[in-house]
Design goal:
The chain has seven helices and two strands, in the order αααββαααα. The chain has about 160 residues and is mainly α. The chain has a domain of about 110 residues: Winged helix-like DNA-binding domain superfamily/Winged helix DNA-binding domain (Arc Repressor Mutant, subunit A, Orthogonal Bundle).
Length: about 160
Amino acid sequence: MKRGSRISNALHVLVHLAQAERVPVTSEHLSACLMTNPVVIRRDMAALRQAGVVTSTPGHGGGWTLTRAPEAITLREVYSALAERLVSMPAPDAESPGCVLEARVHRALGDVFQEIEVLLEARLARITLADLVKDLPKHGFRPSQHTTEEVSHGV
């Protein structure tokens, strides 16, 4: 999985939520864990909320929580919610419009890429968020651990 992909970032955040044990965690805290902007976190969390993986509570003391136990959330759900494809091929005619050879290559590889995607999703369906959390040291969220200033300065 490429570093910085939406799914790797989302899984990182979801592990933190699983460890928070239903205590709401803010986008600012989660973004500090990834050293990114809270807007990036909110975009992916909105997709996960729409898929029923997380929920949010507004206001002071609010934040993101899992909707279900980590054992009930599969990596396939996360992958599908984000609509990111780890295995993808450029669209036909994207690089060389009208090229017969490129079109033939795309047709030949199209089925292969589709099979890889099906296998990937089947494997992700067998892994739960609890599998990722298992045997990890627990990390609590304390405002002193990560601050917005640390994120903006890359500390």
